Amino acid sequence: MPDKVGPLLTRAEAQLGVLTASDPQAGAHQTQQAAQLSEQLATGLFWITSSHLSKLTESVELRFGDQTYRIPAGPNYSAHQGKWLDAFWWARTARDDDAAEMLAGFPIDRLRDTGDGGVADEFNYEWVAILQDAWREGPTTVAGRARSLGTTSALGAQQIVDHLLRPPMVVFDAIASNDEAGLSRALVEALMLHRSFFDSKEWRHDPAGFVSIPLLGLSCWAHDLGMRIDVESEYIPKGFIENPDWIRILDTITS
Fold it and tell me: Where are the beta strands (DSSP E) in the chain?
């Protein structure tokens, strides 16, 4: 089961993307259930790996959908920095503070070496470290650090970096600086870059582009910190942003 979590997450996020195409505000229960499953899988990957690293338990109990499973703790090649970011954004969208706390303590050295020989640009790990510090100490304590990161890719991934990775850093910096006007500007630019990337022939029909998980998570975080979110986009469904208790309400309805 541990090695299936990554592929299941990809499928769940794709389903969410398809559903938001007809439900851009994420008001329907089916859309919210797809988002809930995505969060459970994204964070579950790291609950499984964290349990393995701690050596305190041989298995972990996790809920996926409306079912609870006892899953063996174990290593997973999918628990890399990209999936960590995905899990962190989902934890903020779902207001899952326990998962955010776990992710903030996840060792970056383990993200560097998942066991499959994969590599990423160094700034990705620095970005994770900034977010871990921001969760533990508060975003204002790391103001300026994300914007000052050098994000030149040594691995030939500059287009992805410029369109999908760098913009959330700028949005986060506005949040950390408590700059509402700057947040609006950064969100608008980030959403335009997201659209530009996924409007290309290669990516146009990829459901992963229907929702920007990083910008959604950041918008939810900003909202919960009391910042005004006056930018609306189908890429960041406001049903998740403006209703911090959406997942608890969903649980009440479906229980």
Answer: 59-64, 67-72
Q: What is the DSSP letter of 63?
A: E
Instruction: Quick: pLDDT tens for 89-119.
Output: 999 999 999 999 999 999 999 998 876 677 8
* Eight-state DSSP code of residue 209: G
* CB atoms inside a 10 Å sphere around CB 87: 29
Contacts of 193 (CB under 8 A, 6+ apart): 162, 163, 164, 167
**Residue 59: strand pairing partners:** 72
Q: Measured on CA atoms in the order 223, 218, 136, 102, is the torsion positive or negative?
A: positive
- Residues 39 and 187: their CA atoms lie apart, in Å, by 22
Tell me which residue of 137, 61, 62, 64 sits closest to 101, measured CA to CA: 137
Print the domain residue range for 82. Answer: 2-254
Q: What is the pLDDT of residues 114-164, one digit of tens each?
A: 766 778 999 999 999 999 999 999 999 999 999 999 999 999 999 999 999
Residue from 62, 53, 57, 88 nearest 4 by CA? 62
pTM beyond 0.85: the answer is: yes
Instruction: Choose among 171, 167, 175, 172: nearest CA to 225.
Output: 175
3-state secondary structure of 64: strand
> Contact at 8 Å (CB) between 114 and 80?
yes
Contact 224, 95 (CB under 8 A): yes
Rounded CA separation 50/44 (Å):
10
70: number of Cβ within 10 Å: 10
CB 20 within 8 A of CB 28: no
Looking at the structure of the chain, the number of domains it has is 1
Cβ within 8 Å of residue 146, ≥6 positions away: 127, 130, 169, 170, 172, 173, 176
Q: What number of residues does the chain have? A: 255
